[in-house]
Amino acid sequence: MEKILLHACCAPCAVKCINTFKCENIDFSLFWYNPNIHPFIEYKTRKETLVGYAHKQNVELIMRDEYGLRSFISDVYPNFDKRCGKCYQMRLEAAAKYAAENGYSGFSTTLFISPYQNHEMLCAIGEKLAFQYKTSFFYRDFRPLFREGQRAAREMGLYMQKYCGCVFSEEERYKK
What we know:
Blueprint: E1 3-7, H1 11-23, E2 27-32, H2 40-56, E3 61-63, H3 69-76, H4 83-101, E4 106-109, H5 119-133, E5 136-137, H6 146-155, H7 167-175
Parallel strand pairs: 1-2, 1-4, 2-3, 4-5
């Protein structure tokens, strides 16, 4: 049987992805690796919320728990305005590598539920990494479920972040 490694950026984005996979009897595990999330308290809160939610949903959660402020800044410097591609690359590469090394048939990400993410860029990176690591990349456009997932997350009392994750997206969010 095939099994997907589903990179999870946060619990609210995971809600409908998990529900969809369960309803379709897709075997999967969640994978936490988000060195882009800053500041530390934001990272910790998102991680703890996902851990609790995964437990309640009885879903396996694999943790690569690395708060990466310095490495993330180093990786995106000096092209801060082009940081999203690098951010997608680092997170999907960790998922692709883990999937390939641990017997998963492929990988994907909960980022595909967000209408604010660049799906074309994510897919291009995912396909390239699937080829590189000799695994499969699983694309599903979860965007139609975004609002419903956000509503469900609020009803469950899950922590709802106000920005994508990196310190630059926080700056953009609060400057508006």
